[in-house]
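Q: Predict the bound structure with fe (iii) ion.
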Amino acid sequence: MTIETERLRDRVAAELLRTRDRTTLLTEAVDDGDLVAQHSPLMSPLVWDLAHVGNQEELWLVRDVGGREPVRQDIDELYDAFQHARRDRVALPLLNPAEARRYVAQVRDKALDVLGRARLDQGRRLVADGFAFGMIVQHEQQHDETMLATHQLRSGPPVLSASPPPAPSTPVTGEVLVPGGPFTMGTSTEAWALDNERPAHQVVVPAFHIDRAAVTNAQYAAFIDAGGYDDPRWWSTAGWDHRQAAGLVAPAHWQRDGSSFVATTFGRTEPIAADEPVVHVCYYEAAAYAKWAGKRLPTEAEWEKAARFDPATGRSRRFPWGDASPSPSQANLGQQHLRPAAAGAFPDGASPLGVHQLIGDVWEWTSSDFHGYPGFAPFPYREYSEVFFGPGYKVLRGGSFGTDGSAVRGTFRNWDYPIRRQIFSGFRCARDA
Ligand code: AVJ
Ligand code: FE
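A: Predicted complex:
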């Protein structure tokens, strides 16, 4: 075994432990009553997410990679996301909090043992480069972000805290011109990229303008004040129908306070921060704002070109700033702060063309439906991506303040229904050149 393989093994173990610390924080911040409660019909009880994370780790690392005996085969059905809708999970005979904690710890012991013996340098594609372990790290981080969204929907006094994000020394506004021509979208070389990011392929993207920053709370409030929610001209037919049926008047968690707005963030109600990106808007709201502003949402290919294309070399980078994994000065990720940062707060993370904060802060809605790239092959299971392909889901890019750095990159694709806004979703605008 090479030194490199042993370094990878250590790195994987460290990622598993670091990720579990976050899961523990999110599930120990509240009492057992809160853990088993349903805080919103859109979300699972937190105790379901916890045991589901353990169950996926058991299925893939303990049973599949390790070839070991099941720890708890009897509970597979309860924690299969396709068997029960989120709103129905509270009524299932779930493991209680103590049982769930014991279960995930037992599975983790075995998974670390499997890691210690796995051939990361050769053999099965599932195990090569530690992919299965990376997939499970990312899966747990994805559920950590989901649990963070559940925390945001929970009522009652605050239980989470974090320092405020940095303020920009130079505010960022305006737009840049991204030159037309081909660029490489997706990846065939990123070791832990998931199936829907593959394979790398050339896409010709005509020249377009894209905003250097995400739309801010103040800009979005101007849309509201201009009567944007009452003017069907700005909304698609489906968007207007949804705006009417759901009675949308402002982003989720906003309330009117005289002539202005306050927002409730993890149990604290404060005036909206004018210069921070708007968050908790659905696709239809984002598209309506863009149309009102005389712009549009970027396509997924435009977003990725803005985030990855280096005009000096013609190469696509892993991240806007280059190929190195995110550092805290480059992006607001990983729940380091409990809110998105104002534009200009992470100048180290800007793209070569000067587009800021594409990674972190808020997930950005694109105008694209979720589809497989040319040559897509499901791996290692159809239910991660393929079953969601089609016109029903819109792609979001870039990650939020609640996304871990191991679970996002320039190629990473998230998706959700266009009506959803419990996620940490915002947007930036684009327009034709
Ligand atoms: C990629 C965020 C859409 O949460 O539904 C978690 C990630 N897949 N468990 C989701 C996921 C299976 C997924 N998203
Ligand atoms: Fe899951």
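A: The first strand starts at residue 175 and ends at 178.
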